[in-house]
Amino acid sequence: MSLHHPTAITLHRQSRTLEVAFDDGSTFTLPCEYLRVFSPSAEVRGHGLPEPLLVSGKREVNIDAIEPVGQYAVKLIFDDGHDSGLYDWDFLYALGRDHDAHWARYLERLNAAGKTRDA
Fold first, then answer.
1. β partners of residue 63
2. Distance CA 32, CA 58 (A)
3. Using CB atoms within 10 A of its CB, is residue 83 exposed (0-12), middle (13-18) or buried (19+)?
4. Quick one: average pLDDT of 86-92?
5. Separation of alpha carbons 89 and 72, rounded Å
6. pTM over cut 0.85
7. 92/95 Cα distance (integer angstroms)
């Protein structure tokens, strides 16, 4: 059972962000690129990996659709065709809460691999 429940989920296509408000009063504005590279899908998470696979070239990615999955998650359909991750409420909350640390580590990994955020 989820510890956190969203009260509103708003896609801002122009700024390519997803705004998620939670029942504890927290609101997070999550870039589509961030959501894409930290997708909970097996394609990105791998199986038992300590860190997600490094996904590059997603600076301009956007979300085409948001589909509810029961009362516990949403499926985000990205405009690059990725659609296999289910973002449950606690995962979305953690992505918002830990954004700065996750993003800094992602940028470090990109740099170390000689990759870029651009396609």
1. 78
2. 9
3. middle
4. 96
5. 6
6. yes
7. 5
